[in-house]
């Protein structure tokens, strides 16, 4: 087992544990902080897999912008005033069982399918090469994504504004 | 040499299942949107590993698009949640039962 393999397994354990802690907490602020740890782990995983630009973007956008947005909303509205009631156990027990079945079947398929035993080789996608590839092959998708972000901005502004009279 | 490709797929699958669990079990709109984020993150990990597996940049490009879509989705989703909270005073999806 190489050093890289040890790093991968440690990072995978950290990601799974922090995500598992996050989805079971009651306090939403704790949830967000645990998820920030999870996304930092993902960013390091991206770096390990040779995507330094995506690692930086993951930290900036996921762990930075998106989680801070959630934190704003959680702190803006008083979430601790009401108690969250979970769905009754018998309602989500089938979901959990089917999820476990899918996980087992997926693990079996992944471990037996040819091509999945290939060891990942260390490689590095330089940000310049990544940017050139992106803007040569996918410039139209970039434009569409920028349009989508603009629409999202307008939509969020429209939904979030305070109405003078609440009559709609 | 890092690890077999299948181990990364299993990690991504576990993350995706955790996201589904979060969406289906938690009775709080904010937690449901967070579950979607967890699912997207699992998919991103699978994409980056596939980019390394086939030594091709296409997977990394897709992760960039996933990031952008996640940002747009979160901004609109949270604006909708705040709007619904102003009208009903609750995050419980079972409380949104008025058409007016």
Count, helices of chain B: 3
Order of helices and strands of chain A: HHHHHH
What spatial form of chain A do the alpha-carbon principal axes imply?
Answer: globular
Termini gap of chain A: 63 Å
Q: Biggest interface in this structure?
A: A-B, 83 and 66 residues
| Biggest sheet features of chain B | none
Give start-end ranges of low-pLDDT stretches of chain B. none
Oligomer: heterodimer
CATH overall fold name of the largest domain in chain A: Four Helix Bundle (Hemerythrin (Met), subunit A)
Let me know the average pLDDT of chain B.
88
- Relative helix content of chain B: over 70%
Strand content of chain A: under 5%
Helix-strand makeup class of chain A: mainly alpha
What is the C-level CATH assignment of chain B?
Answer: Mainly Alpha
Largest sheet of chain A: none
Summarize the helix and strand pattern of chain B as letters: HHH
Computed Rg of chain A: 21 Å
Alpha-carbon distance between the two ends of chain B: 59 Å
Question: Can you tell me the CATH topology of chain B?
Answer: Helix Hairpins
Count of all domains of chain B = 1
Q: What do you see in this structure?
A:
The complex is a heterodimer of chains A (168) and B (100). Chain A has 168 residues and is an all-alpha fold. In chain A, 73% of the residues lie in helices and 0% in strands. Chain A has 6 helices and no strands. In chain A, helix 2 runs antiparallel to helix 3. Chain A is globular, with a radius of gyration of 21 Å. Chain B is built from 3 helices and no strands. Chain B starts with a helix and ends in a 12-residue tail after the last helix. Chain B has a single domain, classed as Orthogonal Bundle (Helix Hairpins), CATH 1.10.287. The mean pLDDT of chain B is 88. The longest helix of chain B is centred in the C-terminal third of the chain and has 31 residues. In chain B, 49% of the residues are buried. At the A-B interface, helix 1, helix 2, helix 3, helix 4 and helix 5 of A face helix 1, helix 2 and helix 3 of B.
């Amino acid at each position: 087992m190489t050093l890289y393999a040890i790093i991968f397994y440690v990072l995978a354990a950290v990601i799974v544990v922090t995500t598992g802690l996050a989805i079971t907490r009651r306090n939403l602020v704790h949830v967000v902080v645990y998820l920030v740890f999870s996304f930092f782990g993902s960013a390091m995983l991206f770096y390990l897999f040779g995507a330094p630009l995506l690692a930086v973007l993951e930290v900036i956008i996921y762990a930075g912008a998106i989680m801070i947005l959630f934190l704003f909303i959680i702190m803006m509205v008083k979430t601790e005033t009401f108690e969250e009631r979970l769905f009754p156990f018998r309602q989500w027990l089938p979901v959990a069982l089917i999820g476990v079945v899918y996980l087992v079947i997926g693990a079996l398929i992944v471990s037996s399918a040819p091509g999945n035993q290939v060891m990942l080789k260390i490689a590095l996608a330089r940000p310049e090469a990544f940017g050139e590839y992106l803007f040569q092959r996918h410039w139209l998708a970039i434009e569409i994504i920028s349009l989508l972000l603009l629409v999202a901005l307008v939509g969020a502004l429209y939904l979030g504004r305070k109405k003078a009279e609440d009559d709609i | 040499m890092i690890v077999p490709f299948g181990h990364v797929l299993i990690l991504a699958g576990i993350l995706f299942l955790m996201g589904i669990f979060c969406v289906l079990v938690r009775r709080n709109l904010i937690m449901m949107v967070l579950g979607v984020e967890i699912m997207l993150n699992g998919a991103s990990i699978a994409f980056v590993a596939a980019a390394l597996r086939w030594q091709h940049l296409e997977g990394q490009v897709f992760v960039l698009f996933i990031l952008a879509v996640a940002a747009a989705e979160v901004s609109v989703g949270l604006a909708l949640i705040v709007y619904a909270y102003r009208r009903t005073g609750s995050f419980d999806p079972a409380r949104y039962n008025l058409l007016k």
